[in-house]
Every structure is written in C-alpha cells, then in structure tokens.
Amino acid sequence: MENLPPEGMDLEIPQHVKRTLWTVWADYFATGEGRTISACIVYAHDEESALSEFKRIVDGGDFYVLGAYAQRGVIENDFTRFVFSNNVFEFCNKENEKANISVSGQFYFNFS
After folding, report:
1. What order of strands is seen across the sheet that includes strand 102-110?
2. pLDDT in tens, 8-19
3. pLDDT of 22-52, one tens digit each?
4. How far apart are CA 63 and CA 10, in angstroms?
5. Average pLDDT across the chain, whole number
6. DSSP string covering the chain, please?
7. 27-34, long-range: CB within 8 Å, 24+ apart, which pairs?
8. Who is most buried in 2, 69, 74, 98, counting CB within 10 A?
C-alpha cells in the first residue's frame, strides 16, 4: 500500500502534539446564598485548549471559565470529587489513552 510509512519509521506521536487528559474546575459564588461547581475531564494539548473545551462543554462555560483552574491529569480534589463519582475517576485513570474521554458535570444550589 502506498500510504504506509517506510519500514522502521517511528510512528510515535511527538509529545508537543500528543493530547493528554486534563481536569478543569471552577467554583462560583456571588451572594453567599448559592454556589455552582463545574468540572470536566477532557483530552487537550495544553492548558489553553483544556480551558477552551471547558468553555465548550460546560453549561455557562463562557462565564465560569473566567475563574476556572486547569491541571494536567485526572485530578481528584474537593471540587471534582463533589461533581464526579469514584467510578468516573477510576474509569478515566484506567482507560486513559485507550478511549476518547470527555466528562463534564455541574452542581448548583441556591437558598434564596
């Protein structure tokens, strides 16, 4: 087949091109009576593309991204554990680089 690379050619994807899992989260509160915690775990090239994915897939992401944090890897912290179950973390860690993964969630409450 003419589309195959030459024999012995390294097919490894360069690190600067390879996407890895990133976790992005935001904790928003204004008046003290309500709170919105948003999070996603997505494949991205870097922090900027992870934040762009957050904006795209999280409800209200255009606004919440202004206070969002992004970190490479599947991150379990007080905010992400509030949104995702242990099963989500286990699956993402186990299937990393085996499946295309995009997980998002949001928790909202308001007492007013």
Report:
1. 69-72, 20-28, 34-44, 102-110
2. 655 555 555 678
3. 999 999 998 889 999 999 999 999 999 999 9
4. 43
5. 89
6. -TTSPPTT---PPPTTT--EEEEEEEEE-SSSSEEEEEEEEEEESSHHHHHHHHHHHSTTHHHHGGG-EEEES----HHHHHHS-HHHHHHHHHHTTTS--EEEEEEEEE--
7. 27/67, 27/79, 28/63, 28/64, 28/67, 31/112, 33/110, 33/111, 33/112, 34/108, 34/109, 34/110, 34/111, 34/112
8. 74
- For residue 101 the two structure tokens come to 């993964």
